[in-house]
Design goal:
By secondary structure, this protein is mostly helical. It has a domain at 5-42: Histone, subunit A. It has three helices and two strands, in the order H-H-H-E-E. The protein has helices at 5-14, 23-42, 73-77; strands at 83-84, 87-88. The protein is elongated and about 70 Å long.
């Protein structure tokens, strides 16, 4: 399915890509080749292949979340430059209202 120069310019406009004069022929050949490969893929029989969202199985690489001993609030705040009522005090990023 060869593309015309006008179709290449139209696709470039949609993609907001600026083409230099004379680039239409190059991209027409490139895009026509891509569309040819897509046409070949559409000829495959995929009736027995179930739809999928992933082409490879995805497995979580994170460990299970298990409760275990942690720092006390006082230990966590021991090296903080500033704390207020048991919380870290940080510089404000917005003006107070």
């Amino acid at each position: 399915m060869p593309l015309s120069r006008d179709e290449v310019r139209h696709v470039a406009t949609l993609a907001r890509i600026g083409l230099e004069p004379g680039d239409e022929e190059f991209y027409a050949d490139q895009l026509s080749g891509i569309l040819g490969h897509i046409d070949r893929l559409q000829q495959l029989d995929t009736e027995d292949i179930p739809p999928t969202a992933q082409v490879v199985e995805v497995a979580s690489r994170l460990r299970d979340d298990e409760p275990r001993p942690c720092l006390t609030q006082e230990d966590a705040l021991a090296n903080a430059p500033a704390s207020v009522n048991g919380f870290f005090r940080v510089p404000a990023i917005q003006e107070e209202t």
